[in-house]
Amino acid sequence: MQVTVVIRKFQPRLRSYVKILNAKNLVIVAVDQWVFERDAQDGFLGEAVAGMLVFPYIAIEGREYAQSQELTLKRRLVLELLQNFVQEFPEFSDHIHIEPEYFMHEVMLNRVRVFPPLAFCTSKFMRGQPENTTSVLKGYLQVIEQLKNEKKILFSENYVKISKEFISQNNSKTRLLNITRNAQRSVFTSIFETFPQLLNFLSQSTEALLKHQRPLLKTRLDETRHFVDPLKFVFVPTAKGLVSLAERVSMEAYARKILLRGEKGVVEFKPMGGVLNDVYLLKVSSAEGEKQVLVKRFKDWSGFKWFPLSLWSFGARAFSVLGRSRLEKECAISEILRNEGINVPRVLHISHKERLVFMEFVEGENLTNAIKRVATSNRSASDRELAVISRVGSIMAQVHALNVALGDTKPENVIISPEGTIYLLDFEQASRGGDKSWDIAEFLYFSGHYLPPLSNDRKAQSVAEAFIQGYLAGGGDAKVVRNAGAPKYTRVFSVFTMPSIILAMSNACKKTNELR
């Protein structure tokens, strides 16, 4: 048990006492009012003294004062957690849905991670059997209402969502990422060097608590893994509804539980290729028929995979390497485009823990075949294929108008359904505000790769002109097209495409004004 006494103009600033009362440890902390308030407002001592306000407490005296400091502390901690979301999910932060309980459990669990002995006295609360949940959550609800009035957050069907204004203020790439990651640990380290009295307090408290708990240590060292996962209160949208970030489902479990709904059936996994990712076609067959779902597993790219890419695109394009980051981009950009009427495969489910994305399987032909036919077909057939390429250019202009760059625009990432609908695929390198000229350069110069080496340059020029005309007709920026013809981009694709074809396409980009 701990008693904290806040004293105005207390000297020394901080002192602790460990007593035995009725065979129980009693830790008394006396702290100066200024120090206590700075700890609540700014984390002056890493919440070493004010941190008790995030747990259930009884105010014997000064109830209103304790509540005001509790709100000050919780407000700062909530803002830091929101900043973490913005920086860890830069493409998806405005789509995240948060239940207020998340803040309560995440803050408490952070303190247990830093000071494990707290697990013993908070395990009942943290395991989802709280006796004082209402009193602890009340402060967070009050803070959330304040932040709503300040337009830092908004409510959507009782979920907290981060406002675009807050995101724009906290997405600077020069900021330290993940503000609260290991914050307490680093703060404690500096405190130990600066405040010997606090070190003495913690060592005494820990020694007394561990001595009392020693018989239980061997069986209870891993208490935290039994606590409520705070991410169960955080959700991301899919075409089938919200999915918790705590969701952990394998491909087999998804097939049995969701596709077959517990009924008997045959489950097949067919690898779909891919050098940098694991992609599977998940197929289930039952009495109700057959269902197909595409599954992507996002692994971190190893040095072996990453090094050739970095060499290939050096100076022109930086790739996202971490699996978690690429998964976020895939889901976030897909959701943005789908909501804006762009045809993309629907994201059906996300297993964030397993780094799996389950998405709609789109039947159809990828655009590479249409490009190949341009070189071999008669004029009328070639014109039909060029018309499709022009439509792709128009769609890309619509995407760019949303301030989204796709990042990986190879023709095989465009599917034409049997009905003629054009779908865009693969958004794991996409971003808001990215390099739009790269999108155009990659599409054109990779398209040139599928033209026969001995085909005349006129074919390459006609493909480029069809795409550019569609792009401009769709509202695309001519400057973005002209930039795609720069050596910065052409040299990157010289590994894949004949120089004469690249030159023809590059010249078409530079002459964009003539194609209006």
Helix content bin = 40-55%
Q: Write down the domain tally.
A: 3
Q: If you compute it from the alpha carbons, what radius of gyration comes out, rounded to the nearest whole angstrom? A: 29 Å
Mind summarizing the main beta sheet?
A: 5 strands, antiparallel
- Give the strand content: 15-25%
Number of helices in the DSSP assignment: 18
Distance from first to last alpha carbon: 77 Å
Q: What class, by secondary structure content?
A: alpha+beta
Q: In terms of per-residue confidence, which ranges show pLDDT below 50 for 5 or more consecutive residues?
A: 173-206, 215-221, 303-315
Overall pLDDT level: 82
Rough outline: elongated
Strand order of the largest sheet: 9-10-11-13-12
Strand count: 18
